[in-house]
Design goal:
- Helices cover 27% and strands 24% of the residues.
- The longest helix has 24 residues.
- The protein has 4 helices and 15 strands.
- It has one domain: Alpha-Beta Complex (Creatine Amidinohydrolase).
- It binds 2-amino-4-trifluoromethylsulfanyl-butyric acid and cobalt (II) ion.
Length: 256
């Protein structure tokens, strides 16, 4: 079921999303070579709590038997890790790494979800291009995030743009509706047919999140039950915002 948020619910969504926006503004200035992903996660959790939110990913269950609940406030995925990298005291961030951070803040019963990919220290032309294309894919997608279009129009725009740049999208994971639940209907794949899927209506809040791989789209899951890596070892990037559908252009709630 797709939930249409009331005026009051939209205000709560704005608040939760603002915490995530503040968090990334701070993390961007904080992330440095030599830090562990655990340290970065601790900082993210502190920023969330200082802003009246709790980390919704902590304790989140994938629903898969035998996989423990997610143990951290953020997912931190480095280089060929695509998504759901688990923060660790043993994982050091190095100069030139492509670090994707994905986090969800829960405030007043509503969730704000966003992801950013940072290039740490000196960047290469190729990693810059990957990160820029991933961010642009989000913007290509949300050109259709307004009344008169369907979810498939967003998916199609993202998929075609990424392909046109010589990269691949991940097929097994997708964007989603968001609100009281972290994952609500509709699912928003990063590829698909234009003109298909649910109609887009004002009051929907959606997390649009291209996951882009430099090489082939195939992925593998590590034994921890969470971390997703590229099969070919090529680099991956992730960019996500929670948006609000309005009568006109969508509002991006997880940007300052
Ligand atoms: N934030 C992710 C998303 O974009 C979900 C993370 S799964 C979790 O949908 F286990 F880390 F919570
Ligand atoms: Co999401």
């Amino acid at each position: 079921m797709i939930t249409i948020k009331s005026k009051r619910e939209i205000e709560y969504m704005r608040e939760a999303c603002k915490v995530v926006a503040i968090l990334y503004d701070k993390l961007e200035k904080t992330i440095k070579p030599g830090m562990t992903t655990w340290e970065l996660d601790q900082i993210a959790e502190k920023i969330m709590r200082e802003n009246g939110a709790i980390p919704a990913e902590k304790g989140y269950s994938s629903g898969i038997k035998g996989v423990p609940p997610y143990p951290a406030a953020t997912c931190i995925s480095i280089n060929d890790e695509v998504i759901h990298g688990v923060p660790s005291k043993k994982k050091y961030i190095k100069e030139g790494d492509i670090v994707s951070v994905d986090t969800v803040a829960l405030k007043n019963g509503f969730n704000g979800d966003a992801a950013r990919t940072f290039i740490v220290g000196k960047s290469s032309k190729e990693s810059e291009r990957l990160v820029n294309v991933t961010k642009q894919a989000f913007y290509e997608g949300i050109k259709y995030a307004k009344p008169g279009y369907r979810i498939g129009d967003i998916s199609h725009a993202i998929g075609e743009y990424v392909k046109s740049q010589g990269y691949s999208v991940v097929k097994e994971f997708q964007g989603h509706g968001i609100g009281r639940e972290m994952h609500e209907d509709p699912g928003i794949p990063n590829y698909g047919k234009a003109g298909k899927g649910p109609r887009i209506e004002p009051g929907m809040t959606l997390a649009v999140e291209p996951m882009v791989i430099q090489g082939k789209s195939n992925i593998l899951e590590l034994d921890d039950g969470w971390t997703i890596i590229t099969e070919d070892g090529s680099m991956a990037a992730h960019y996500e915002n929670t948006i609000l559908i309005t009568e006109k252009e969508p509002e991006i709630l997880t940007l300052l």
